[in-house]
Amino acid sequence: FILKELMQDTGLHYDRYLREVVDFLEKDPHFREKLHNTDMEDIKQGKLAKELDFVSHHVRTKLDELKRQEVNRLRTLIKAKQDIEGGRGLKIDHQALLKQFEHLNHMNPHTFEVDDLDRLIKSATHDLENYDKERHDEFKRYEMMKEHDRRERLKTLDEDARKKEEEHYEQMRRKHAEHPKINHPGSQDQLKEVWEEADGLDPDDFDPKTFFNLHDTNGDGYFDEQELEALFTKELEKIYDPTQEEDDMVEMEEERLRMREHVMNEVDTNKDRLVSLDEFIIATKRKEFLEPDAWDTLEQNPIYTEEEMRQFEEHLTREENNLIQKTADLQKQREDLERQQQQLNAQKLELQQVGLTKQNRVIKRQVQEHTMRAYTAAQMGGKKAQMIPAAHLEEAVGELPGNNQPLPPAYKQDLPTHS
């Protein structure tokens, strides 16, 4: 039963891996037989996982391949997360980070073993049991954020505009609450309405078994969560209209979730997240099916208290202050880096100037030494030396970049050049 449920779109981040593993396991005759003869508690306790040792070589090989693909996917996710968080270029310890993913044994990334199947079933069971709660929590945050934004908008308005806004809000709230009676989900009245309006059948001929077969759309003998939720569309259309300002489609999906949870709690007696034909028939014979209580919709059930709203807004304020502080810190770091860069640039320029000055001094000294050697050679050679005006030599040397030092007084005379 649980594996049938896992074949649906679970919404889990490892949904594709989960469904592919289940699909291949069901193709093995031995495993499929054991699956039909194992009860829910044994599956949850890992007894079914031990049957993996007896499946065909082809299935095991495919499972190995699926696991390697999943490990690679998780490693890619880890790297992407590191890059986003500013860790680009840092060495990643994949083995340590893979520990957070409990649906497989990360210590053995190459082969799919009994422990992998046991982990996968237990993780999926646990995550699915908490999935609805997480959806409820997300919806609660959504509603509080919507109210927070409304209140913040009111603060920006003058008295007259604020009064008009409040009146409009109350008008939309009352208009949304004005809808036909909602049948209790899973009751005879609710199912008969589907039978008549969706199926086009005579309500006096309502037959639970025929109804079940009509709406077991995949023909597997069970109502899964999606098939159950589809039964409530008619009821939800009484409350929500996507073309109307007062109707929120996010709220509609929360209402659908509440209806499905209620029916599952009432009908799914073995808690396998599926409704079998037997469970459905038994439920149609109960008093709650024939004479149900009224169904309270979302607007009749406050999602949060004013105290929770206050705490939520305080949390938002803290987050906003933290963000402001982080922004200020980043700006200060940027200014510090810019200042350091300016200092480095100044030091670099200074070093370049110092090096250029030293280079020019060496060149000037070499020119002077060469001139003196030429003059001495001319004198010793007994030849008439052609004199080069010292001013010309000083002018030539002074044109060197960074040179601003005149020739020493001892050389301020006409110097000869060897002709």
Automatic annotation (TrEMBL):
Pfam families: EF-hand_7, NUCB1_N
Entry membrane topology: Peripheral membrane protein
Main subcellular localisation: cytoplasm
Limits of the EF-hand domain: 203-238, 255-290
Keywords linked to the UniProt accession: Calcium, Coiled coil, Cytoplasm, DNA-binding, Golgi apparatus, Guanine-nucleotide releasing factor, Membrane, Metal-binding, Phosphoprotein, Repeat, Secreted, Signal
Gene3D superfamilies recorded: EF-hand (1.10.238.10)
One cellular component (GO) term of this entry: membrane
Region (Disordered): 398-419
InterPro entries noted in UniProt: EF-hand-dom_pair, EF_Hand_1_Ca_BS, EF_hand_dom, NUCB1_N, Nucleobindin
Keyword Signal attributed: yes
Coiled-coil residue spans: 316-357
Subcellular location field: Cytoplasm; Golgi apparatus; Membrane; Secreted
Gene Ontology terms for molecular function: calcium ion binding; DNA binding; guanyl-nucleotide exchange factor activity
Similarity-based family: Belongs to the nucleobindin family.
Name under which the protein is recorded: EF-hand domain-containing protein
Native source organism of the sequence: Electrophorus electricus
